[in-house]
Amino acid sequence: MTAPITITLNGERRELAPATTALDLVADLTGKELGPDGSPTDGSRLGLAVAIDGTVVRRGQWSESVFADGHTVDVVTAVQGG
Amino acid sequence: MSWTIDEATLDSRLIMGTGGASSLSILEDSLRASATELTTVAIRRYDAEARDSVFALLDRLGIRILPNTAGCYTARDAILTAHLAREALDTNWVKLEVIADEDTLLPDPIELFRAAEELVLDGFTVFAYTNDDPALAKRLEDAGVAAVMPAGAPIGSGLGILNPHNIATIVSRAQVPIILDAGVGTASDAALAMELGCTAVLLASAVTRAHDAEAMARSMALAVEAGHLARHAGRIPKRPLALASSTFDGMLEPVPAGDYARESDPAPDVARAREVPRAHEVGQ
């Protein structure tokens, strides 16, 4: 068993299993089942975006984006404003 | 009444913000009453507990989303926020907002311009929130933004349009839509913006923080429409003195002056009036 990795998720430390992908993380946060293209299998829209170390990861790339120890990850959405 | 931006046609000239509403149900009622077709949202860290479903609400109401970069102080932060918004919300449209300080929330012109240039190159349709500065407005237009959005007054201040002359100057020189953004307090402010020639008005606090948000939303929709109609109806020129709207032809002969004689009255009447004590003489 490989040791877990630690990332900073939305400003807080978080331990993840090794080889966790952005797709795994978003599915876990939202509680939705996601297809390989990052879209919910129930046909709804997520309205989320992911950035790793200040760079946006396109939804289609989530399944191939594996987190590494020390990554800073932001998951954002639309809120009331403006 | 419709207008076009980035090949999209919008029937409503009222763009709403979603900030400041005390609940999503009040926001929903307000958005419906406003008849808006374009509404701003902010981009923030996802909170699984919060379940803020403004995204779902706008989706359900069929209102197009205009993400903003509110809260960003630098071009770099605004550009990252715009890219996150594009990815999260599937839109190239962004309301670019780069503020200088939290007391005024006024745009930082230097960072704003840098961000606008880069986002245009990145293929965004940029709605640039800016100061009411005609020179900067022109530079933003030249940089390729889709719309210039001058502030009428600081965000949330409700002070109205502090420099109508500048807004009119910006409008007169623009080839892109000018959208009045920020400062609107009540319906007459929105109407004035349209009378000055703005293509649309963007407001949030004036509605969401009003005592009766739904009623204020309806009033803003009417004000924007009224102002737009007035702008294109060809208003009368302002004149220093009155211009009678009723003809003087066919007037009766004037009756002699009564107790309140004027110097211009004919002499006999003046003499008679002088026999009556004037107000300041009474009691002396």
Describe the SSE topology.
The complex is a heterodimer of chains A (82) and B (284).
Chain A: E1 5-9, E2 12-16, H1 22-30, E3 48-52, E4 55-57, E5 72-80
Parallel strand pairs in A: 1-5
Antiparallel strand pairs in A: 1-2, 3-4, 3-5
Chain B: E1 3-5, E2 8-10, E3 14-17, H1 24-34, E4 38-45, H2 54-61, E5 64-67, H3 75-89, E6 93-96, H4 109-121, E7 125-130, H5 134-143, E8 147-150, H6 164-173, E9 179-181, H7 187-195, E10 200-203, H8 205-208, H9 213-233, H10 267-274
Parallel strand pairs in B: 3-4, 3-10, 4-5, 6-7, 7-8, 9-10
Antiparallel strand pairs in B: 1-2
Order of helices and strands of chain B: EEEHEHEHEHEHEHEHEHHH
Q: Please count the beta strands of chain B (DSSP E, at least 2 residues each).
A: 10
Specify the oligomeric state.
heterodimer
CATH class of chain A: Alpha Beta
What's the name of the CATH homologous superfamily of chain A? Beta-grasp domain
- The 3D shape of chain B can be described as elongated
The largest chain-to-chain contact, stated as pair and per-chain residue counts, equals: A-B, 25 and 38 residues
Order of helices and strands of chain A: EEHEEE
How many beta-strand elements of chain A?
5
Rounded mean pLDDT score of chain A: 92
Describe the overall structure.
The complex is a heterodimer of chains A (82) and B (284). Chain A is mainly beta. Chain A has one domain (5-77): Beta-grasp domain (Ubiquitin-like (UB roll)). Helices cover 11% and strands 33% of the residues of chain A. Chain A is built from 1 helix and 5 strands. Chain A has one helix at 22-30, and strands spanning 5-9, 12-16, 48-52, 55-57, 72-80. Chain A has a 5-stranded mixed β-sheet, with no helix packed on it. In chain A, a hairpin with a 2-residue loop joins β1 and β2 (12-16). The relative contact order of chain A is 0.26. Chain B is an alpha/beta fold and 284 residues long. Chain B is 38% helix and 15% strand. Chain B has helices at residues 24-34, 54-61, 75-89, 109-121, 134-143, 164-173, 187-195, 205-208, 213-233, 267-274, and strands at 3-5, 8-10, 14-17, 38-45, 64-67, 93-96, 125-130, 147-150, 179-181, 200-203. In chain B, the strands form 3 sheets. Chain B has a 5-stranded parallel β-sheet. In chain B, β1 (3-5) and β2 (8-10) form a beta hairpin. The longest helix of chain B has 21 residues, at 213-233. The A-B interface holds A 10-11, 29-31, 45-51, 54, 56, 58-59, 74-82 and B 17-21, 27, 40-48, 50, 52, 54-56, 58-59, 65-68, 70, 80, 83-85, 87-90, 95, 97, 204. β5 of chain A pairs antiparallel with β4 of chain B.
